[in-house]
Amino acid sequence: MGAVVFVEVLDRRGRVAQRHAVEALPATVGRAYDNTIILDDLYASAIHVRLEADGNGGIVALDAGSENGLFEVGRPGRRARVAVTAGTRLRAGETVLRIALPGQAVPPALPEPLAGRLLGRVLRSPAGAVGLAVAAGISQGLSSWLGAYEQVEVARAVSDGIAVIALLAVWAGGWALATRVLTQRTLFLAHLGLVSLVAVAADVVWSLGGYVEYIVPSLAEALIGDVVAVLATLAFIAMLLAGHLALTSSLSPARRLAWALSLSASLMGIVGFVSYAEDGDDEVGNAAFGGAIKPLGTAVVASELDPFVLRLEDLRVAVDTVAARPR
Amino acid sequence: MQVRVLPRALMARTAALLAALLAAAPAARAQDQEPRGATPEVFRRFAARVVKLEVSETGSGAKATLGSGFYVTPAGHLITNYHVVAKLVHDPDRYSVELVDQAGDRRPVRVVAVDVVHDLAVVASDRASAAWFRLHDVAVEQGARLFALGHPHDLGLSIVEGTYNGLLRHTLYPRIHFTGSLNPGMSGGPTITGAGDVVGINVATAGNQVSFLVPAEQAAALLARATAQTPPPVSLAEIGRQIRAYQDTYVGRLFADSVPTVTLGPWRLPTRPAPFFNCWADADRDDETPYELVDHDCSTDDLLFVSPEHSTGIARFDHRLMTSDRLNAFQFAELYSDEFQRQQWVSDAGEEDVTPFKCERDNVRVGAITFKTEFCLRGYRRFPGLYDAVLRAAPLGRARAGVVTTLALAGVSYENAEALVRRYLGSITWAP
Q1: pTM
Q2: Which of B34, B76, B167, B373 is packed most tightly, with the most Cβ within 10 A?
Q3: How far is B410 from chain A (nearest CA, A)?
Q4: Interchain contact B320–A (C-beta under 8 A)
Q5: What is the ipTM of this complex?
Q6: Residue A62, strand partner residues
């Protein structure tokens, strides 16, 4: 091409809006239509900047008698003369100009999100993604079948599994649509693989939680158990959203995580608020019991009767405190 | 008519109290008239001793409760039911009670003493009474003709003939079985022999001429306490004390001695620990359902009325056995879980009366059995030291058999609840 210097007009967010290859110096920049680079800025003069070779192989930018002056971004004060190199940013009127030189170093390409790692490879391979979706379906079907005691029907479990796959596909489809709009790719299978993976992982973690609660109920006790459950849910939803965002947009990992966490927290906040509002009515009434039973028989951590009964005293103290409070 | 929601096992003995809470209208029943002439004479002789009691809201003057009462001393003391005047005891500033005598004269009365356990109260007007019933021991035979007096549905002082059918054998709170049609509004009125001896005080009916009386001797005892040098106070604290004292006697010894057991699956569980418990069994075997259920329920049947919103004083326990040879271990565990998590009704009470339940859950080893256990407790706001307690336990260790057992106690002290938890769990064993 033979350009001597590139002048890039940057937009408000610092991205390149226009790139001009200047083939010969001197070159001029301004609003008039006989400039080398024509600006569209009300605050730029007819001829605002002149770019010249400085005689030592470098390039210099000179204020060409502008109304509002020439500035170097990052340094105070109007300048008559700025020695420019690759990366120098100048301001003329309200326009920011960045100088680039042919042959200047550019950073290497960013890897595609999730590209290199095992996870990424699995998600991006059609077989991997479909495999994960099928795994999610099987996981749901298995849960359905193992949890059904009124009527033992394999058919119902199978249809539950298929229903879950369909649901995951719809969710992935929504994200694929967003990806298509924002980039030129759809990545449907990658989205499907991602949500299936998170679904299976959540299933596994939840089951494990249930078994832990069965084996050591006092460990999984009231408040601590609830806090962990809330944090785990938050983490899962955030991971899911971060993954989808990675495939969809070019946000930096930090910003993706920030978005994912805030969306996840808001969602949980809304759900929590709604269920709290509904629950308010049923305060006094029947005694409600929690605690699941798992097919592990007596492979549990059990207290002896005396220590258990001693703990009931604390319950009584708590109840007395509530009873003594005026309504 | 006051209707309380009672658990399944009690439906056979549902008894509604006889205080009319609203002036509603069903007509009085026709009586079989025997041409004996005794009834009109009984009415003539004794009607003047029976009054109507009206509890009204002091502000609006609206009638809140209607009941009956009768004179028992020359000084103007009357006997009635506690549940007739309960509103006054709970909210003395908001309610007042008046008697209306046969002549139609109205006089204010005050509550002098209450006996919550037997559902009795002594009230007094400050005017001497012209005629009264003297309370004393009466010998009555099964089948004797009795006459109940009172004000059914505010229709005027009425007399109802009926039959004495004995003292109920197996109840927590002593009751006489009276065969006759008692109706709301007759609460607190006397049921007498033809000679004018008070046998009992009208308290409740289950409909179909099955009615209940409080034995007169309880009223005599209360009257003696009320007219003593220092009568007990009429206050919520006194009511709390009475309930606590009474539950000490009946709950205190439950399960302490050896208790009859019932074999359900591989376990032996307690049944009928005292004569005042009634037990019922039920089995659910249906070819379509892949598991079988056997239920065994025991309960004391009578609720103790504390206030219109709050009934207590009941003890009950039930065992639900589940077995299956068609479900696999996971499916059975799911069934067992869901049954363990089933909610439990304990007593009728509102937010004003009790705190919400607080629970503690753990695996507990008692002897050779490890139980999944959960214990829930709630306190009575107006009666410190009284609680509703529920224990739920499920023994572990069989892949496809399980029994969920629940012990529910209403209106007990914490010490008794704790003692019962220990004894109850200790009484469950493996069947040999």
Answers
A1: 0.80
A2: B373
A3: 12
A4: no
A5: 0.80
A6: A50, A81
